Amino acid sequence: MQADESPSQDVHIALRDIRKNYGKAVAIRDLNLNIDRGQFTAIMGPSGCGKSTLLRCLAGLESITTGDILRSGRSIRHQEIWEREMPMVWQSLALFPFLSVLENIEFGLRMSGVSKGERHRRAHEWASKLGLDEYVNRSIDQLSGGQRQRVALARCLVTEPSIILLDEPLSALDAHLSLQMQAELKRLQRELGITFVYVTHSHSEAFSMADKVVIMNEGRVEQEGAPQEIYLKPATSFVARFLGGSSILSCTVKSTETDEVLVDGKDGTFRCTSDEFRTLRVGSKINLIVRADQISLSQESGWADNEVYCRVVGEEFVGALVNLQLETASGSKIFVQLQQRDLKTLDIEVGAGVFANWHPEDCHIIN
């Protein structure tokens, strides 16, 4: 779609050929993205990829260098911050310590000229919805982290916007409280039908809450799609490495004459049966990818069609799961995710030798 075309009625925000320069430095380059009405969109990427800059451009806190931002088909590129009506929940929350909880919640209404009675009514209504009734007269420094988070949300929601921007709002919370707030955010978003644009570093936040995940790299959209789609089929090596938990092996196609395509890697020949291998030619160079949860371990050879001997070089315990990092004789990295009970059964420790095994249907190609 060209920049001057109108998006469909379902598209709430359309970013068209967005570029943002800071002098000679390019923060966002030729970015195109549709955000549907009522959609929870999570934007992810490494530090410096441009995700927070993109959010600030949406809010009007930064001007774009070239391109256009369309809201319901109309350009908002030259609108001021207050005209865009896209309140933001900041990472720091940006609450006013000299105001009470109620005064913080109603602040946006006061700036909009809403009468005192009406803004009190609406502020109390949202305080009640977010479980803040008993705290409305308290100062901000008398609240817990989760309570402050709710005040920041109420301050945005009280103005009844159709879009809310959120810049890593849960990053300062502990793990337990973060999980609670994730559930609360998703519930509110579904009930209210508000479009959420949510920037985060956290894979778990994005994949548990979002309808659509956008992965950015060096100011561009590397991949976008439903969380399950991106998890199961990362489009590029960058996305796979950013998300983690996948082994990527450089291979050359050896044979395509049978139902199984054979590929040669540095540590052996592997069998592949996924449809994506069917059109490959002998001699083609590919990156073969296998997800960590599709690889099993054995202390003896011959347990699966594909196997490679490795040494365990690292382990990470994550609740009931264990993430293992293995290294092959060629130096390739293999990542495996097991249940703790399975690891105990194998009796494998860091430094031990082990065979990594996977099935032909679990092989995929990545750019």
Automatic annotation (TrEMBL):
Signal peptide residues on this chain, from the entry's feature table: none
Keywords linked to the UniProt accession: ATP-binding, Nucleotide-binding, Plasmid, Transport
Boundaries of every ABC transporter domain copy: 13-243
Cross-referenced Gene3D superfamilies: 2.40.50.100, P-loop containing nucleotide triphosphate hydrolases
GO molecular function list: ATP binding
Family: Belongs to the ABC transporter superfamily.
Protein name: ABC transporter ATP-binding protein
Annotated source species: Pseudovibrio brasiliensis
